[in-house]
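This follows on from our talk about sequence and fold. Can you supply me with one protein entry, sequence and fold together? Could you add the entry underneath, on a fresh line?
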Amino acid sequence: MMNVIQYLEKNPDIVALLKTQKASLIGISSLEQKAILDAFNSEIELKSAAWQ
């Protein structure tokens, strides 16, 4: 799963497709996919202006 996360970090456009359910991760359960997307959402929130 670490390889998938590293790939998504390098390809944020894929994350956007996952969020809009226009793509899926083959071999990753829906629960794991939700956890990955939640982690990417948390990362975005940490970079917000409120934390700077």
